[in-house]
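hi! just following up on the protien thing from before. the input was this:
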Amino acid sequence: MQMEMIDRRSSGLPMLFSMTIFSSACLLFFVQPMFAKMVLPALGGSSAVWTTAMLFFQTVLILGYLYAHLSVRYLTPRAQLVVHLCVWALALAFLPIALPQGWTYDPARPAAWQTLTVFALGVGAPFAALSATAPLLQAWYARSGGPSSDDPYFLYAASNLGSLLSLLAFPFVAEPLFGVRMIGQGWAGLYLVLGAGLLACGLAMGGGSATGADRPAMRTTAGPQDRISLRQIGIWLGLAFLPSSLMLSTTSTIATDIGSFPLVWVIPLALYLASFVFAFSRAGWPGSATLEKLFLIFLIYSLVIYAGDLTGSFGWLPFVTLVGFFFLTAVLAHRRLYLARPAERHLTVFYVTMSVGGALGGLFNSILAPMIFTDVYEGPITLLACTLLLTGAWRVRDGLVAGVLGAGLCAAPMALGLATGAEALRPYAIASCLATFLVFWRCRRNPVAAFVTAAVVLMLGQAFLVPKALWKERSFFGSYTVLDRDGLRIMMHGTTAHGSELLADLGQRPTPVTYYSSDGPLARVVMAEASRPAARIGIVGLGVGALGCYRQPGQDWHFYEIDAAVDRMARNSGLFDFMRDCSADIPTHIGDARVTLAGQDLTYDLLVIDAYSSDAIPVHLMTTDAMRTYLARLAPDGVIAFHVSNRFFDLQPVLARIARDLDLRIYSELYTPRPDQLRPGELPSQVVVLSRSAAGLAPVIASGNWTPVAADARPAWSDDYSNVLGALRRIRF
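and the predicted 3d structure came back as:
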């Protein structure tokens, strides 16, 4: 049966294929943040959950593209349609998408492997079916005889446009308005509708018995007709690898310091897809010279950020810079991919190779880099490789000479500052950056010179601008550094301090500082339990163990920490003294606190949730479902204290809505002493306390300037619903 009602000379056929491939891409990329949000309560709030998930999606994409390639090459058109409809139908057994029943996270097993497993069980089949659809539909359109069927790559732009819109729709529309369960049901319904589009496209393709291997090549304006060389494959792999790796390193950087939730994941991925839309579109194309100049400007500032974070704490300007640099790099790389595309008969080989390059980027960032590096070095490494994307002839000898001279010019201001014994190196570093900009501008037509200059600048930054680390360790959950600065020994995660000790206290019983000083609200909440000698206290978020120094004799304390690396650091007496002198006998329960608490049979008089001083907020620890877990482990008059000091999010209203729905009493204190009253190492802080009873809160609110908190009419966060955008503070540049 043929679909003769569609005029192959009209726009009807391109519209049918474009809409079907658009719908398939929407479903394909909508499911990624949707399922990641579903599994966060089970896996924890680490940014590595998303980067590992991306490795899974990229790997399955390879399998889907490979299946499409083999299908087109060895099956007749009618057989391709029948087989793909069967694959589509088999995935229906996994709908609606949900966390596999009975699956639980085991902290004793590798987290990356468990993440890959739960994604494979939960969403593997539907994602595999959808991932093969785009290359199959393009190959089918090439057989259809429709307009531009000899160069069907324009459909890839429609595919990526659908992916882009669906990614943006999740955090900006679906997540704020609907629960994950309702979203999953709607997704399943649209997946059913897609089947009709696949059937229509398959019938429009036409029947026949010729396989892809037997068909004569059609006219093409790009790429060779016959054999593909290894050099071509290598170029495709490299151009696909760089944007993928840079996307994941950018995601890790911003997720570590802003938060691990769909919006942060979606922005780099959406820009990644948008770069395909620009690069693979046959419509107007921005001038290469303009793009290269913008690329150069963003490259310089990204180089500054990676070299030594001269901007200070992570803020919105570095965020915009890193994301902008990534996007421009992706556009340039993917445009080169498009220009290097082969004839349509090699279309599926091209997409398989491109997906392998993307997956290699995921493998490097998610698996290899954490094993090889003690810090997040994949970003700078990929940045160096990206300098080779600058246009121009590869004049290696001239490039090396120019690079060495340029590097010397860039190093001169910093060397001057060191030679003169300048106390502050920042002005000299800025001068070095300006010199770097001039060198890059002069060498923008020689990638080798740019590469040498960038490498030297990065090494200079690491050598002179980044404080010397006393200890470094990297795990699935992040990269940690201990360093001495401004009279403090500080444990850093990203750009956020997770605990400090006064250098003057080293070797003796330490005094808690930062958010935990004796005048701060968190310390007063803990000390209010001093009147209850037999109190049991649980602390979610170990840090350096500073709160343990407020323990009173007879009290039973427990720490909860998701990352064993943090516990090793805190108990290392050569680094910090809190655990050694105050709480060496306090057990640390390793694993996601919510999951661990749910599996225990302990009752606490006080639970401190100290997982929000970092800006990477674990949303799943602040939902009505999580609060019910805490209340199940709380004595009738017990108190829950949330430490919510945060640069990017106002979390007090979130807790107020939960308290409203669960009929809890809630008070808050924002501790902001005058600068002349701050003790060494002390920081302002905000704490929210909740309890079932007024009696439980009485000794706490009597200890400071606590005020009751009223809830607004907005819905409370749950595992099914959360609106992180609504909790964002004002944008700071």
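Residues 480-727 form a domain with the Rossmann fold fold (CATH 3.40.50.150).
The first helix runs from residue 12 to 43.
cheers
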